[in-house]
Design brief:
With 333 residues, the chain is an alpha+beta fold. Helix content is 41%, strand content 20%. The strands form 2 sheets. The protein has a 7-stranded antiparallel β-sheet with strand order 1-7-6-5-4-3-2. Strands 8-9 form a two-stranded antiparallel ribbon. Strand 3 and strand 4 form a beta hairpin. The longest helix has 26 residues. The protein starts with 24 loop residues before the first helix and ends with a strand.
C-alpha cells in the first residue's frame, strides 16, 4: 500500500501560523573533533618519564619534599627514577607502537599511587601530597589512553625476547667449523661476555656470563638438534638466568670458497623488555654482541688471533682497528 506524503511550503506571511521547518539535528551538528594523537602523546610521556627519572636520581630529597615528604626515602625514590628512565627509553625503543611500554608505565603508576597513599598518614604537607596524587592519576589516564589506542584495549604480555639472525663467511670447510662450534668451551675465546662454558656430557653444558652492572648470570643448556657438518640447535633449561635458544647452520660455498655460518638466536635479556632497551642505550645489545662474536670467531679460526686495541677491548673496535694496533694472539684450533 503506497503512502502519500504532503509537503507544506513555508512563507513569511504565515510564519506565525506555520513556523519555520527545523533542519535535522545531524545536518546542524558540527563535525566530530579529531581524536587525540596517541603517538605524539606517548612521545611526550617518554620525555616526561626520562626527565622525572633524572630528577629523582639526582635530587631525591627535593622530590620527596615536593610531594609532601620529609626528604627521606632517597634510595626508594632513586629506584623509582631508574624505572622512569627505563620506561621512557622503552617507549622510544618500541617505535610507533609502544603499547607494551605504556602498559608497563601503568603498572608503575599504580605503584606510585600506592606509595603516595601509604605516605599520607605521615605527610608533612597534605596539600602537596594531594596535588602529587592528582597529577599521577592524570598521567595514568594518559598512559591508559595511549596504550589502548596504540595496541588494543587489553595489555599484551610482553616477553622481552629478542630474535636475531646473523651470518659470516669463514674460509674453512663446514666440517672444521662444525667441530669448532660443537666444542662449546671454545666460545669464551671469541665471546667476551662469557666467563666460562663447561660441558656436562655429550648434549649438556653449563654457561657463566657477565650480566648488566657487573652481575653474573648462569644457565644450563642442552643440544636439541645435531646434524654433523650441517647444523647444531640448542636451548636453555628451565630456571636459567638468561632464557635463550638458537641454531647455527654451516653451508659450503661453491668452488670450495669457504663456508657461510648462519646463526639465529632468541634471547630474553635480564629485566626483560626494559633490560633490552637499557642495554641498547649503552651499546651492549645482543644484536651487536652476536655480530661482534661472529667476526671474532672468523679471526680466531682463520688467523689464530683477535685484534684488540688498548682503548677498546670489546665490540667492533676489536675487528676494525688500524694496522698499527697491537694484536692478542689466540691459540690455533
Amino acid at each position: 500500500m503506497a503512502v502519500n506524503e504532503a509537503t507544506e511550503t513555508w512563507r513569511p506571511d504565515v510564519a506565525s501560523r506555520n513556523p519555520a521547518p527545523r533542519f535535522p539535528v545531524a545536518a546542524r551538528a558540527r563535525p566530530p573533533s579529531p581524536p587525540l594523537d596517541a603517538a605524539r602523546i606517548a612521545r611526550g610521556l617518554a620525555w616526561f618519564s626520562i626527565s622525572l627519572g633524572v630528577l629523582e636520581v639526582i635530587a631525591p630529597r627535593f622530590v620527596s619534599r615536593v610531594v609532601g615528604g620529609r626528604g627521606d626515602n632517597t634510595t626508594l625514590i632513586r629506584l623509582f627514577g631508574i624505572r622512569e628512565i627505563a620506561s621512557g627509553a622503552m617507549i622510544f625503543g618500541q617505535g610507533s607502537k609502544p603499547a607494551a611500554a605504556l602498559w608497563s608505565r601503568v603498572v608503575g603508576d599504580a605503584i606510585d599511587i600506592a606509595t603516595l597513599v601509604a605516605a599520607a598518614p605521615s605527610s608533612r604537607n597534605k596539600g602537596a601530597l594531594a596535588v602529587a596524587t592528582a597529577n599521577v592519576l592524570g598521567v595514568t589516564a594518559l598512559d591508559v589512553y595511549c596504550a589502548r589506542e596504540l595496541g588494543g584495549d587489553r595489555p599484551s604480555a610482553p616477553t622481552g625476547k629478542i630474535h636475531m639472525a646473523r651470518s659470516v663467511v669463514i674460509n674453512r670447510a663446514p666440517d672444521e667449523l662444525y667441530r669448532f662450534w660443537h666444542d662449546f668451551e671454545n666460545f669464551p675465546r671469541f665471546m667476551y661476555h662469557l666467563e666460562s662454558v663447561r660441558s656436562n656430557g655429550a648434549r649438556a653444558s653449563h654457561w657463566v656470563a657477565r650480566g648488566p652492572a657487573g652481575t653474573r648470570v648462569e644457565w644450563d643448556a642442552e643440544i636439541t638438534a645435531d646434524t654433523p657438518n650441517e647444523l647444531i640447535a640448542w636451548r636453555s633449561l628451565p630456571g636459567a638466568d638468561v632464557e635463550n635458544s638458537g641454531i647455527v647452520q654451516f653451508e659450503a660455498r661453491p668452488g670450495g670458497r669457504g663456508t657461510i655460518v648462519r646463526v639465529e638466536i632468541e634471547y630474553r635479556p635480564p629485566l626483560g623488555v626494559a633490560g633490552s632497551v637499557v642495554a641498547k642505550l649503552f651499546n651492549a645489545s645482543p644484536e651487536q654482541q652476536i655480530y661482534d662474536d661472529l667476526h671474532r670467531m672468523k679471526q680466531v679460526i682463520e688467523t689464530g688471533e683477535v685484534v684488540r686495541s688498548d682503548g677498546s677491548p670489546e665490540g667492533m673496535g676489536t675487528v676494525l682497528q688500524s694496522k698499527g694496533q697491537p694484536a692478542e694472539t689466540m691459540p690455533s684450533i
